[in-house]
Design a protein that fits this description.
The complex is a heterodimer. Chain A is mainly alpha-helical. Chain A has 9 helices and no strands. Chain B folds into 2 domains: about 70 residues, no CATH class; about 170 residues, Oxidoreductase, molybdopterin-binding domain (Sulfite Oxidase, Chain A, domain 2), CATH 3.90.420. Chain B contains 8 helices and 10 strands. In chain B, the strands form 2 sheets. A 5-stranded mixed beta sheet of chain B has the order 2-1-10-5-6. In chain B, a hairpin with a 5-residue loop joins β3 and β4. Chain B is globular. The relative contact order of chain B is 0.15. Classes of the chains: A mainly alpha, B alpha+beta. Chains A and B meet through α2, α3 and α8 of A and α3, α4 and α5 of B.
């Protein structure tokens, strides 16, 4: 594992000779795998939700995946492997390479407030895409935590007997369903902002795709 | 590949795609699940296979579902007990749930009903309800989790299935116990042997201390607290100990066969 990791890191450094690499290759690959996995998980999850809604609404079948409950479950429990394996590798790489520490920390309330103000008055600089502003640090750290919680709450819904201590940690099976739903809603909220900003700053889309 | 690219262009005629996909499906009712999955499935099949052929997406999903069966069998700990609850936690009213309305539920005559025993067992004698009622019973208050997502806590009383399997001299090294039921269209469901031998798996004759009402599966329900609800057959007519995977009513329609909880 560490050999693989260092190879990838070294490769990235080699490519820096020409232009500065903003996003290393492992981040780019895992980002897009994650994008596919999240898309499949959310749209199949909506169809599963529809079988027994928690609230007084259902998702239109035009935006759900799977066609009916059994199909949605097949998609959900297939895409979960993509999400989990990719997610675990991402966490391992992020911790081992020091990316999380370097890119996402520190986060201070005053800096978040200052950068939020700057963003809302359109004064926030995007000149150096390799450095995240405090709002980005907060959102990216937050969404990693949400990602961990949505997987753990999902596992506790899937296996309330075999993983009953995990389920109990979430307050039981029924509460875990609400936690799972709330995390989905948080990810959807994040995606609205994330995608909108990527479209506003197209070079960030370029950086996450080809690295530069 | 060219074909794949044309399918990935935004604005692809999804209806036509689904129409094509449906042509390839002989039994529409049982293959509904793939219909709207085909277009998005195309995006995930980056292996270069023919994405307009929905059966390749379906085959992939079913392969993964079988892999998930194996993973769940691995996770399954025969000594892990499902949580039990005080009687005050019982859900009232306990939901009736089936693919038909309550008035369509089978009304089994308890006087003539006999549990048929088949397959890899020493004693294939059929059992009357009175004979079964003579066997030692235990009461369990456990949570039933439905594949639809909802859950409800109920109280079931009955004979541990493993005791009965021992009594009839079943080959407990066989792979499955396959149940056949009186529900309309013939409900059936396979139960893997390790789950059948789980200490909490029981032949339930009572719900909330009363003889099972029609709604909950009179005369006998197999209660498996370590499985989703549809793996808990009601109105059981026969059980067969077998090494063959004989499929099940919901399992054949795409629901994961192990469906452990």
């Amino acid at each position: 594992m560490s050999t693989v990791m260092s190879t990838i890191v070294v490769n990235d450094e080699h490519t820096t000779r020409g232009a500065k690499v903003i996003q290393p290759r492992w981040v780019r690959v895992m980002h897009w795998i994650n994008a596919v996995a999240i898309g499949l998980m959310i749209t199949s999850g909506w169809e599963i939700y529809n079988a027994s809604p928690l609230f007084r609404f259902s998702f239109s079948s035009r935006i759900t995946l799977g066609g009916w409950l059994a199909g949605a479950l097949l998609w959900h429990f297939a895409a979960m492997w993509l999400l989990m394996v990719n997610g675990l590798l991402y966490l391992a790489f992020g911790l081992a390479t020091g990316r999380f520490r370097k890119k996402l920390l520190p986060i201070t309330p005053s800096a978040v407030i200052a950068d939020t103000k700057a963003a809302l008055t359109l004064k926030l600089s995007h000149d150096d895409l390799s450095r995240y502003n405090s709002v980005q640090k907060l959102l990216y750290s937050g969404i990693i935590i949400v990602g961990i919680v949505i997987v753990l709450s999902g596992l506790s819904i899937w296996k309330p007997v075999q993983l009953q201590y995990l389920t109990a940690l979430f307050g039981g099976y029924d509460v875990a369903r609400y936690v799972h739903f709330a995390c989905m809603a948080a990810i959807c909220g994040f995606l609205v902002v994330h995608v909108a900003l990527a479209l506003l700053v197209p070079k960030s889309l370029r950086a996450i795709t080809i690295g530069r | 590949m060219g074909r794949m690219r044309s399918l990935l262009i935004p604005g692809v005629d999804e209806k036509l795609l689904i129409k094509d996909a449906q042509k390839a499906m002989p039994d529409l009712a049982r293959r509904r699940f793939i219909a709207s999955g085909a277009s998005l499935g195309a995006l995930t099949l980056l292996t270069g296979c023919n994405v307009s052929d929905s059966s390749s997406a379906e085959a992939m999903l079913i392969r993964i579902s079988k892999f998930n069966d194996a993973v769940q069998a691995l996770i399954f700990n025969p000594d892990t007990l499902a949580p039990t609850f005080p009687e005050s936690a019982i859900t009232k009213p306990f939901p009736f749930n089936a693919y038909y309305r309550l008035h369509e539920a089978p009304r089994v005559d308890g006087k003539t009903w006999k549990l048929e025993v088949r397959g890899l067992v020493d004693n294939k004698k059929s059992w009357t309800l009175d004979e079964l009622y003579q066997l030692p019973q235990v009461k369990q208050v456990t949570r039933l989790v439905c594949v639809e997502g909802w859950s409800a806590i109920g109280s079931w009383t009955g004979t541990p299935l493993r005791d009965f399997l021992k009594l009839i001299g079943a080959d407990t090294h066989a792979k499955y116990v396959w149940f056949q039921c009186a529900d309309k269209d013939g409900y059936n469901s396979p139960l893997d042997m390790r789950s059948a031998l789980h200490p909490q798996t029981q032949m339930a004759f009572k719900f909330a201390d009363e003889i099972l009402p029609t709604a909950y599966g009179f005369p006998m329900k197999i209660r498996v607290p370590t499985k989703l609800g549809f793996k808990n057959p009601k109105y059981v007519l026969s059980m067969e100990v077998t090494n063959d995977y004989k499929g099940g009513y919901w399992e054949d329609q795409g629901y994961n066969s192990f469906s452990g909880s």
